[in-house]
Amino acid sequence: xxxxxYFANNTDPRFLGKVKLMKLFYFFDFMHVKxxxxxxxxxxxxxxxxxxxxxxxxxxxxxxxxxxxxxxLSDTIxxxxxxxxxxxxxxxxxxxxDYDRGYFSETELEILEKVCARFGNKTTKFIEDASHKExxxxxxxxxxxxxxxxxxxxxxxxxxxxxxxLSTQLL
Length: 171
Fold this sequence. Notes:
The longest helix is centred in the first third of the chain and has 19 residues, at 18-36. By secondary structure, the protein is mainly α. A two-stranded antiparallel sheet has the order 1-2. A two-stranded antiparallel ribbon has the order 3-4. 46% of the residues lie in helices and 11% in strands. It is globular. It contains eight helices and four strands; from the N terminus they run ααββαββααααα. 35% of the residues are buried. It has helices spanning 2-9, 18-36, 55-66, 98-101, 106-119, 124-131, 135-138, 161-170; strands at 45-48, 51-54, 77-81, 88-92.
């Protein structure tokens, strides 16, 4: 919930739809893998047409879109559907607080800040295109699970494949 609140409070609300939100999660997890060897959410990413999708997170966000009253995230985000627009905007139900900040390690906060600095004011198309240049997306077949270890094949990764493999198997 704290990650959702962070993204919803630290990105341009005009551009934060469900597709972009899923890419923000991808970059959050995979940038953390590239820099520190392990993902944060440990969600299962799947290669889809518009880029990598965290499957559990998508299901939780979709529940808000379809049944707000019983959705687990109803106290965190709401989905706004604009008339005539394809985007389902993701909006926070409250501000990101110091209490929420306490859920994160220093490295997680660092990566959250970097992801929002890089993509916060960008369009969905921009972040989608960026995800399509990453080895995890390029080296996976459509609808297949994206292994975290593929992050080691990107030039900006400072961790080796063995370290990533070990850290993703520990939990």
